[in-house]
Amino acid sequence: MYNNLIKDKQRIKILKALADETRLQIIRVLFQKEQEAKCGEVGELCHMSKSNASYHFRTLREAGLIHMRNEGQSKFLRINRETFEKYLPTFLETL
């Protein structure tokens, strides 16, 4: 039962993150690119300011939906396919 509570909390985080149009658009952009992308590039494609993009990236990262890595002063994003496969196995194919 305890494991189910932990999984439910993660499910709630994921569903709340995906309930926002902008964050859904970010996931769509990353899925369609099929590789990691610079944060600035994703922000531009989604027509977001830097601060607004950072907020949405953080929300997606905290829900476990994306990975972020730093390389010098650049930040790169990619979809965390493991999370989608575990909690929403066919979701990405619907984008």
UniProtKB/TrEMBL annotation:
Residues 3-95 form the HTH arsR-type domain. The keyword Transcription regulation applies. The keyword Transferase does not apply. The lineage of its organism: Bacteria, Bacillati, Bacillota, Bacilli, Bacillales. Keywords: DNA-binding, Transcription, Transcription regulation. Pfam families: HTH_20 (PF12840). GO terms for molecular function: DNA binding; DNA-binding transcription factor activity. It comes from the Bacteria. SMART domains: HTH_ARSR. This is ArsR family transcriptional regulator.
